[in-house]
Amino acid sequence: MELRTLRYFVAVAEELHFGRAAARLHMSQPPLSRAIKQLETEVGAALFERSPAGVVLTPAGAVLLDEARTLLDRADRVRVRVAAVVGTATLTLGILGDGADTRVHRLATAYRHRHPHVEVRIRKADLTDPTCGLRAGLVDVALTRGPFDETGLTVHELRTDPVGALLRADDPLSRRDSLQLADLADRRWFLFPKDTDSAWQRYWNGGTSRQGPVVRSVPECRQAVLWNGTVGMTPLDHEPTEGLVVVPLSDARPSRTVVAWKEGASDTNPLIRSFVRAAAASHRD
Q: DSSP alpha helices (H): ranges in 97-217?
């Protein structure tokens, strides 16, 4: 029973779909299916119940998933401890400047407990780079928000957050229980610079072209609203500063909190694999 095969199995078990698991593993589906079949032969039991809609774990599969996660985590810890001895146990983490993950304290505690000898270097990115330096090779893994161009990257969704309109407290719309994007159609919005990722820009502009002041950070967004009466979108769980309010947007797609890394990087870097598992676990609890 090889560790690689167990990683294949965990991917299928978490995605509950061979196609999605193959995409996550950056491989075609036939060899993945063969590997799972071989694993089922080795353990002497069916691990999945298959249907056109996808797969579900059998009781045997559920037991193996729990054990496989433990084995893979242990294997990565061994690699990390060896790396620490030779002085190479460093992980550079990019964090979006909007405080994307409100559970970051829990994640940091869990990761430090798991890898006390790993040095985690933090690079905080502003809102003009949702990949937090991944494309430029400045970080190993990013804790950020989508959507953005995922070409060459692997992106794992941790959760979704509802969004609202950021308004001045004395704005006539601030007294509404909820709004729709059409209610803000004639307003000036805060915008990101023109060279910002287009998918990111389009999402935070409510899906259409807008006019308004250019901003690069969360404080600049808030100040643009406070001083100019412009509007924009923000996650509902972000506390506005004094003089501002957030009104839920009923027809806006939720914002995705994600962990991202370069394609293939987790295959060779156990620190990335371990971080992704810790991030996922911190959002399952």
A: 104-114, 198-204
Non-local (6+) Cβ contacts of 62 within 8 A are none
Confidence (pTM):
0.71
Instruction: Give the pLDDT confidence of 147-166 residue by residue, as tens digits.
Output: 999 999 999 999 999 999 99
Q: Tell me the pLDDT tens digit for each residue of 78-112.
A: 776 776 665 657 899 999 986 556 678 888 888 88
Around Cβ 284, how many Cβ atoms within 10 Å?
Answer: 8
pLDDT value of residue 15: 87
| Residue pair 35/103 in contact by the 8 Å Cβ criterion | no
Residues forming beta bridges with residue 234, ordered by sequence position: 164
The packing angle between helices 29-43 and 18-25, to 10°, is 110
Closest CA to 182 of 231, 222, 235: 231
Burial of residue 107, with CB atoms counted within 10 A of its CB: 0-12 exposed, 13-18 middle, 19 or more buried: buried
Contacts for 88 with CB less than 8 Å, ≥ 6 apart = none
Specify the amino acid at residue 41. T
Token output for 39: 């694993």
Burial of 117: CB neighbours in 10 Å, binned 0-12, 13-18, 19+? exposed
**Contact residues for 221 (Cβ-Cβ < 8 A; gap 6+):** 127, 166, 190, 215, 232, 234
Is pLDDT above 80 for 43?
yes
Q: Do the beta carbons of residue 252 and residue 208 sit within 8 Å?
A: no
Q: How many helices (H) does the chain have, and how many strands (E)?
A: 9, 10
